[in-house]
Design a protein that fits this description.
Layout lengths: L10 H7 L26 H8 L14 H14 L3 E5 L2 H12 L5 E5 L4 H10 L6 E5 L4 H7 L4 E7 L11 H10 L3 E5 L4 H4 L9 E5 L13 E5 L2 H14 L5 H11 L2 H21 L3 E5 L9 H7 L6 E6 L2 H11 L4 E2 L9 E3 L11 H7 L5 E5 L5 H13 L3
Parallel strand pairs: 2-3, 2-4, 4-5, 5-6, 10-11
Antiparallel strand pairs: 1-7, 6-7, 8-9, 9-12, 11-12
Helix pairs in contact: 1-3, 3-10, 4-5, 4-9, 11-15, 13-15
The structure holds ligand LCS.
């Protein structure tokens, strides 16, 4: 991309231009979809040199593809990293990182409130390879510090956490991880780089389910890992390319298209969420609202230091508990009753029986994922329409 000045470009500009070099062959303004599984070598020597890493160039799409590279450049730029690896899903990103960084006898500390399967991968699968995991409240730094051992290799943090929206102090978590010689991996899915850039606070790897805000249109599943340190990237890349959780070029093309409108979508959904959270917190049928943008939040200082905005995820608890929650889920009209988040359309779901159903009930309780908790992923519809719809569903409870 041409930069008209020597100043760093603003993130809204980067969303539109990063990774979008005109195609060198035909000048296509948008990076084309290189829908090919393999790349032809001009000579046996060239093929050998590419395999030996002595010559740049593509080999085979599982190990890299120009369309996927364009997306990786874009997201690495937005996060302030130096490189990225796109994966077939967010969970492929999570499991690739664990495979790359953990060995038998190692220990990992993970936020207790995380997307359910990220936790299950550690507790159910990595435990079979003698990797121990401590699921702790990482928003409590004393607890995080006390959980570190001399075998802790990875600290995995989701902030705000899915679905409780608990906030972890990234700068402090990075310090605690680094003092113990561990790598800090931050799942930044709920914020996107528009609202939070974990590298600024010392993260080593930033992870996204691009299924969510980065793609933004509820039509692709994908993930990405972003790095600052080339050595760490090389270690993870080696695992990804052999284990095979790579992103397909068509997937990459769609996600890259979504990234161009990321800043606009994130801010519009956030404006809507602010209005809905205020309405919810004033409604007589609502017991509590978890939203980092509400006045009087106990971590307000940290939120203003670490996040550029509260985002568009709201979790709330109704006075009527689970039964009232089910009624709201079935009487709202605009938010679809579906898991996922970060798309232009609003979605509503019940974490205890859906996204976090695979967790043990006692673990859910400990993590604050109560049976009455409802998660609303606010989209980009008109705020008045969303407010009227949610209000009619809540009014129907009394
Ligand atoms: N990380 C976070 C924070 C997530 O919310 C999800 C999926 C993943 C990783 C995994 O990404 P995937 O493989 O689905 O692309 N979260 C979902 C959710 O809350 N509802 O449905 C999926």
């Amino acid at each position: 991309m041409k930069n008209p000045s020597d100043k760093k470009l603003k993130i809204d500009t980067e969303c539109i231009h990063a990774g979008s070099e005109p195609d060198p062959i035909y000048g296509a303004a948008v990076p084309p979809i290189f829908q090919t599984s393999t790349f032809v070598f001009s000579s046996p020597e060239e093929g050998a040199a590419r395999f030996a890493g002595e010559e740049a160039g593509y080999i085979y799409t599982r190990m890299g593809n120009p369309t996927t590279s364009a997306l990786e450049t874009a997201v690495a730029t937005l996060e302030g990293g130096t490189s990225a690896l796109a994966t077939s899903s967010g969970m492929a990103a999570v499991s690739t990182v664990f495979f790359a960084l953990l060995s038998a006898g190692d220990h990992v500390v993970c936020s207790q409130s995380v997307y359910g399967p990220s936790r299950v991968v550690l507790e159910r699968d990595f435990s079979r390879f003698d990797v121990r995991a401590s699921m702790v409240d990482t928003s409590d730094l004393g607890t995080l510090q006390a959980s570190m051992t001399d075998r802790t290799r990875v600290v995995f943090v989701e902030t705000p956490a899915n679905p409780t929206l608990a906030i972890t102090d990234l700068a402090q978590a990075a310090q605690i991880a680094h003092e113990a010689g561990a790598v800090l991996v931050v799942d930044n899915t709920f914020m996107s780089p528009i609202l939070q850039q974990p590298f600024q606070f010392g993260a080593d790897i930033v992870l996204h389910s691009v299924t969510k805000f980065l793609n933004g249109h509820t039509d692709v599943v994908g993930g990405i890992l972003v790095f600052k340190d080339p050595e760490l990237m090389g270690k993870v890349r080696g695992v990804l390319h052999y284990h095979g959780g790579t992103m397909d070029p068509h997937q990459a093309f769609l996600v890259h298209r979504g990234v161009k409108t990321l800043a606009m979508r994130v801010r519009k959904a956030q404006d809507n969420a602010k209005a809905l959270a205020e309405m919810l917190s004033a409604h007589p049928s609502v017991e509590s609202v978890g939203y980092p943008g509400l006045p009087g939040h106990p971590q307000a200082d940290l939120i203003s230091r670490q996040m550029k905005g509260p985002g568009s995820l709201i979790s709330f608890q109704l006075k009527g508990g689970l039964e009232a929650g089910k009624k709201v889920l079935s009487t709202v009209q605009l938010p679809a009753l579906a898991v996922s988040l970060g798309g232009v359309e609003s979605l509503i779901q019940h974490p205890a029986s859906m996204t976090h159903a695979a967790m043990k009930p006692s673990d859910r309780e400990e993590a604050g994922i109560t049976d009455g908790l409802v998660r609303l992923a606010v989209g980009c519809e008109d705020a008045e329409d969303l407010l009227a719809d949610l209000r009619q569903a809540l009014d129907g409870l009394s």
